[in-house]
Amino acid sequence: MLQWMKNSFDLAGHETTLKRELMAGMISFFTIVYIIAVNATILAEAGIPIEAGIIATILTCVVGCWLMGFWANAPIILVPGMGINAMFTYTLVHSMGLTWQEALGVVVVSGVIVTIISFTKLAQVLLEAIPSSLKHAITVGLGLFLTLIGLEKGGLIVKGENSLLSLGDVSSPYVIATILTVILAVTLFMRNVPANFLISIVAGTVIAAALGVVNFSDVGGSALPLDSYLSLFGAVSFTKIGEFTFLVAVFSLTMVLLFENIGLINGHLGMINRPEKFKRSFQANGISILTSGLFGTSPTVSTVETAAGIAAGGRTGVTAITTGSLFLLSMFAIPFIKIIPGSAISPILIIIGVLMLQSVKQIDFQDLSEGFPAFLVIVMIPFSYSIADGIAFGFIAYPLMKLLLGKAKEVSAPLYVIAALFFLTFLTNVH
After folding, report:
1. Which residues of the chain have pLDDT under 70?
2. CB burial class (10 A; 0-12, 13-18, 19+) of residue 412?
3. Are 120 and 354 in contact (CB under 8 A)?
4. DSSP characters over 285-351
5. Which residues 6+ apart lie within 8 Å of 277 measured at CB?
6. For the chain, what is the mean pLDDT?
7. Could you tell me the pTM of the whole model?
8. Cα four-point dihedral sign 78, 83, 89, 92
9. Phi, psi angles (nearest 5°) of residue 50
């Protein structure tokens, strides 16, 4: 079995080991496992029962990660995307008036479109249409976004009373636990200690427990009853598929999914220097989006937390398969997973943010027709708290800057179309 895995996933060719891949998969799991509770809570706002939403989220994560691992042999983690889940609930359901069943129908249709594109030359055309400066900017913007999430999760940054953000209470036990774990995590990482992220998470949980910020009352309870999920599985509705609202919802969601995932997948594969894996990775992503709607949740994305597994040494699909398998096991261990505090996870996200910032060196800021659109992507992703909106600003600004400077021929025809579609998405206010 072990030899089969080594040969099938070409571990030697990827200069990795089975132990390293398994450890990277565990790291990826612990940095993204919060999505189970968070996603189910957001889906509940759309009317989906929270117990069913938890099971739908877990099953979607399992299938998505396995698809990526077995089909693309890439260490990319597919889970319901933060921001996309908010779009599902607050835009498709609350603002546009679709039922959650109809919104799931939108997800399925968008998944079909993305999948069809991924199996045609159009996927490569879209990838090549994106300028190098914007690709690197997306990676940097994601790094800053991940850092912001880490700072928030660790309590170091909070919503300000007289400003958008302010410094958290650094004297609180929770923030102290975060700071101590950051110091430990950075030290272990810089010393290249094996499994440093996993050690940091475990040690961070112990530190938090010692400071009294871990709630052990969450431990206990029984496994979730699967019968609560039967009303959700396959409950998609296409009754409004010919109506304008449904079509606009499909267009909006598809646009966001296409370019958010193109950017994310390209960024992740860039970290392991394996651009040749893009096609199959994007295909796995498209199929996963389709299955998301059938399982009963918002669409999957190639989550930014994938960078945690890559930074821990993940190079092949074994990493993703390990993460997916742990998600399946989590069905029976949710109460235990919930006790891992944000103070133990946030330092990992902050370190990953630092690593992703290194791509800024590849952007030519001397040429503002390249640098300014890249700058917009970098700042708007974290400041708008939306990967999709940040990408849209840069994609609109790039051809506009080139036109104003008389460099219109430097922009590919597909990019003009993409910019126009993003602009239309903003005008319709359904981004």
Report:
1. 1-2, 217-225, 334, 337-338, 428-431
2. middle
3. no
4. HHHHHHHHHHHTSPPEEE-TTHHHHHHTT--SHHHHHHHHHHHHHGGGTHHHHTTS-HHHHHHHHHH
5. 72, 73, 74, 269
6. 88
7. 0.76
8. negative
9. -65, -35
